[in-house]
Design a protein that fits this description.
Length: about 775
């Protein structure tokens, strides 16, 4: 029996025609609603544009098989392994394969000239101990048939194998030394290369078999699956069922066509039909369950050949025959706009009306009803009277709506279609606030605080206190006696029974944007326009550190979710922080972790709006709505899973042309006389790059050479040496929420000494000096 793969000439024949088909497709897809789409080619990192297979290794790296070697991706950069040989066949990677020796954390790749490459510990190298193809024997198969190893679908050689199918037997590996072989007549199960079971199954296609878990499945044209147990206890081919939404797919029911995407190393199977992608998973009884995971992607137009799902994040990786790599990350946030407003979707104040709508002062209400989520209702009368003054809105206990325009105060009925009352005050109204007893507080620009009792017939706004207050930006009552007042010049509090006004130290000349005062806690959380976030607790004022680019300096709003996380809007994106971490910092400072979300998470812009009351809205069901200069940003915090940078860190091997040092068993050995080396830090992380906070420090002996230094974007560390000896590199990374939640890497560095640095040379010099002194004295 010959054991060789499909000849290269036939391989080229298949590739040639698939390339010509793909070249006819000129549509470029750079966006998909609800997803961030990244596209990589040989122009921005890939060694070559034909991505044949994609897997993830035990460290979390993504590996790509291409026609010009392997590429390892850590979310930041590609490390290309294209030095596997000088010929096209030596560099061309056919795909990834299960290791028949089942070495932990190891996977194999095979070049087109039948050389095995082992991937382990984040590195790839030719494994010369492995000989032969396909590394699995099949004693019962006719010697007239060639063995063809199939570990992914679609298979690159499908056209050639189909043409020569009577001379082929297909091998489907399982973990732990097991595999199946199909020769168009029988399916044979092997354990450690010995026949364990043979089952008749004639006349089937080689390219409808796939392995999931312990089972081999065959899926026919009608989506009817047959199962073969990888435990060997088969009484015969077991007809099972496929459930889920795939069976009702409109495109499949119209055309009857679908494409299987299977990767044996990742143990994943997908079905695409039209622009939809379904994942198949086995249930406990061996049947298959389909789940819709993507809609709207042009699989055929992009000539997609491989699919990988990062299960912990839901991120999708698509490899194309011609167009490189696509990475699709689902956006956890949704931004709502009024299409009729065109470019005028700038929002400030919001209020919950009619129990299921969010009203804005642009004259638009957005539905919260699950059946019509985001549907728009015009509030024409509010828009007409409020016009540009959108900074404050109230829905009172009676369900009526309050808003303003300069010196005029309006009260509308519950649906905003009728004005109930209007009043004039002698100064520009800046903000409105309803106290717990239902009273309406009116903050002015230069005449202090006014008050109106809406339950009193014929009531008029009257001055209450604080004529020295200017540009009132926020009002909030704490208990029955204290009112906190934020202004453009600082923070104040009023003792309501006595009307005594006090200015809070530490906020002089600061523009207060908003306050958050949680119930049953003596905590005043303060956001400011250019000084960040503060906490006033038990008379102690704490100013929290800013993020690395100081986006938090202009913090607009804090809303706490049900899990104890703060969501803080800024002019440069959205931050998530844990309340208990901030309280711990107020007791004893440490490096705080803020999780950052930018517009790629689903916003139309990074610029959120502030200076309004309320500054954000928490609706029924926990939904949070924040205003921005381009839409309302909606999300349910409990459904947002922050992608934390909690993976390990590694040092990559030096360039093959750099002989100044080697890395051996976790230690770095440096030649004598080398003034410095450059080390590359790698950590698999595919989330928002801004959330990576890595720093390093270098020691000689026990003495640090300098304080902690931030790792630059290129993730390179220059390690200087002052002579030979023992050095240590310490690299640390904030891994997420929590107190001092560091991931730390320690590396010992040994620099060989020059001859004049050795103790033997120094002893010789001392001896020579003493001898010379003795001769002179004698």
């Amino acid at each position: 029996m010959r054991t060789i793969p499909i000849p290269l000439a036939q391989l080229f024949f298949c590739i040639f025609f698939s390339l010509n088909f793909a070249l006819g497709q000129q549509i470029e897809q750079t966006s998909l609603p609800g997803y961030e789409v990244k596209h990589f080619t040989d122009e921005n990192g890939l060694p070559q544009n034909s991505v044949r297979s994609i897997i993830s290794d035990s460290r979390g790296y993504i590996w790509l098989a291409t026609e010009r070697g392997l590429a390892r991706f850590d979310g930041n950069r590609f490390l290309n392994y294209d030095n596997l040989g000088n010929s096209f066949a030596a560099r061309s990677i056919y795909g990834f394969n299960l290791d028949p020796q089942s070495r932990k954390g190891s996977v194999l790749a095979m070049t087109s000239n039948q050389v095995w490459v082992r991937i382990v510990d984040g590195k790839a190298a030719i494994d010369s101990t492995l000989r032969g193809y396909p590394l699995r024997r099949s004693a019962n198969v006719s010697k007239a048939r060639d063995l063809h190893l199939i570990e992914s679908l679609p298979d690159l050689n499908e056209a050639a194998v189909t043409h020569y199918r009577h001379g082929i037997a297909a091998v489907y590996p399982l973990p732990a030394g097991r595999h199946f072989v199909y020769d168009e007549q029988n399916i044979c199960y092997y354990v450690n290369n010995k026949v364990a079971q043979l089952l008749p199954f004639p006349g089937r296609s080689f390219f409808r078999f796939f392995r999931l878990g312990e089972n081999l499945y065959y899926l026919d044209e009608k989506l009817k699956p047959t199962r073969f147990a990888g435990t060997g206890d088969n009484n015969g081919p077991e007809e099972t069922i496929l459930t889920g939404p795939l069976l009702a797919d409109a495109n499949y029911n119209l055309t009857g066509q679908y494409q299987i995407f299977w990767n044996n190393c990742s143990n994943q199977t997908f079905i695409s039909t039209g622009s939809r992608l379904y994942e198949l998973r086995p249930s406990k009884d061996g049947s298959l369950v389909s789940t819709l995971i993507l809609e709207g992607f042009d699989f055929r137009g992009k000539d997609i050949k491989t699919v990988f799902l990062q299960s912990e994040t839901g991120r999708l990786f698509f490899g194309s025959q011609l167009n490189g790599l696509y990475i699709l990350s689902k956006k956890p946030f949704r931004t709502l706009v009024d299409p009729s407003a065109q470019s005028n979707n700038v929002y400030y104040g919001q209020a919950l009306i009619e129990h299921n709508k969010i009203a804005t002062l642009t004259g638009t209400a957005f539905s919260l009803d699950s059946r019509s989520l985001g549907a728009i209702t015009p509030l024409t009368l509010i828009k007409k009277h409020v016009q540009w003054d959108q900074y404050s809105i109230i829905r009172d206990r009676a369900g009526t709506i309050w808003s303003k325009r300069r010196e005029t105060l309006f009260r509308f009925n519950g649906d905003g279609k009728r004005i109930l009352s209007s009043w004039k005050v002698p100064d520009e109204i800046k903000q409105l606030y309803q106290s717990p007893n239902g009273g309406i507080w009116i903050g002015t620009n230069s005449l202090g605080l006014y008050y109106l009792d809406p339950d009193k017939i014929g009531a008029q706004p009257h001055f209450f206190a604080g004529r020295q207050l200017s540009n009132i930006s926020w009002m909030q009552q704490q208990g029955n006696e204290i009112m906190w007042i934020g202004t453009g010049k600082g923070l104040y509090k009023i003792h309501l029974p006595s009307k005594k006004l006090s200015q809070i130290k530490g906020f002089f000349d600061m523009y207060i944007r908003s306050l958050y005062i949680p119930d049953n806690h003596d905590e005043i959380w303060v956001t400011t326009y250019s000084n960040g976030v503060f906490l006033l607790k038990n008379g102690k004022l704490t100013r929290f550190p800013l993020d690395k680019e100081q986006y938090l300096s202009s913090a607009h709003c804090i809303i706490e979710d049900s899990s104890g996380y703060f969501w803080i809007t800024t002019n440069k994106g959205l931050f998530q922080s844990r309340r208990t971490d901030l309280l711990s910092y107020a007791t004893k400072p440490f490096d705080l972790y803020y999780h950052y979300y930018s517009k790629i998470a689903g916003f139309n812009t990074n610029e959120f709006n502030g200076g309004c009351q309320p500054c954000g809205l928490k609706a029924y069901g926990g939904l949070i709505s924040f205003p921005s200069i381009n839409g309302l940003v909606w999300f349910i915090p409990e459904r947002v899973r922050p992608e934390l940078p909690n993976g390990q860190m590694f040092i990559d091997n030096p360039d093959i042309h750099d002989s100044s040092f080697v890395i051996n068993s976790g230690k770095i050995l440096v030649k004598s006389g080398v003034p410095q080396i450059i080390l590359k830090v790698s950590t698999p992380y595919f989330g928002e790059p801004y959330n990576l906070r890595i720093s390093y420090r270098i020691f000689k002996g026990d003495e640090p050479l300098f304080e902690w230094q931030p790792l630059q974007e290129n993730r390179s560390i220059s390690v200087p040496f002052s002579g030979g000896g023992k050095y240590k590199l310490v690299v640390r990374k904030l891994g997420g929420f929590g107190v001092r939640n560091y991931y730390t890497m320690h590396l010992d560095i040994s620099v060989s000494q020059r001859y004049y640095e050795t103790w033997l040379f120094k002893a010789f010099v001392v001896t020579l000096v003493l001898l010379l002194f003795y001769v002179i004295m004698k």
